[in-house]
Amino acid sequence: EIVLTQSPATLSLSPGERATLSCRASQSISTYLGWYQQKPGQAPRLLIYDASNRATGIPARFSGSGSGTDFTLTISSLEAEDFAVYYCQQRTNWPAKLTFGGGTRVEI
Amino acid sequence: EVQLLDSGGGVVHPGGSLRLSCVASGFSFGRFAISWVRQAPGKGLEWVATSHVSGNNKYYADSVKGRFTVSRDTSENTIYLQMNSLRGEDSAIYYCAKELVPGAFRYFDSWGQGTLVTVSS
Predict the structure, then answer these.
(1) What is the dihedral of CA B120, B62, A50, B29, to 10 degrees?
(2) Are residues B113 and A36, on separate chains, in Cβ contact within 8 Å?
């Protein structure tokens, strides 16, 4: 089973700063990684798929990179609405299973 | 507009059963896999099960295999999650979610609002 480890657990930053979130896979997953944002009381929202593709309607300040086992989500300049929890996610081909990382909380 | 409306949550005793529903609209229901993802209070996300469009393919997390069953009614655009032998650790908000690319079963681009399941004596 592939395990996704996110770091740091919490990131304390100010509006306007750059946020860099990490997700490490226990074995290579090529570029098959997604990133989600979740705000309190809301369902998750897809931000990035296939490691670097922004989902529909996602602002350009969100970018993803990486391949193999190391991935990064970057928020170039934090806005007030970006303070939330971020999860990475991947799917194992066989057996078909999906796993999420433990999450990174971005707080003021 | 894509919409997923999940419902059916509630309070149930350990060992009991519950059936969740997810009614979909705004897209070609028969082309997309729909999954259930849960989130225990204050915890992270956990994939639970997926109803794939390919034949009767269904996939389950090890933690629910043999206890939960996912099914779909294409005529009603509805996905169900039958949950049996419920345990305290099954307490969570359950979300239904639609896959991004038809048949890829890889990412979720639309989510329901969530329905809360509490297993308690």
Answers:
(1) -70
(2) no
**How crowded is residue B96: how many other Cβ atoms within 10 Å of its Cβ?**
32
Distance between the two ends of chain A, CA-based, in angstroms?
34
**Beta-ladder partners of B113:** none
Closest partner CB to A43 (pick from B47, B50, B111): B111
- Looking at CA atoms only, how far is residue A36 from chain B in angstroms? 9
Query: pLDDT for B63-118, tens place per residue?
Result: 999 999 999 998 899 999 999 999 999 999 999 999 999 888 899 999 999 999 99
> For B94, what's the count of Cα atoms within 13 Å in the CB-facing half-sphere?
32
pLDDT digits (tens, 9 = 90+) for A48-65: 999 999 999 999 999 999
- What is the SS3 string spanning A19-70? EEEEEEECCCCCCCCEEEEECCCCCCEEEEECCCEECCCCCCCEEEEEECCE
Cα separation, B4 vs B7, whole angstroms: 10
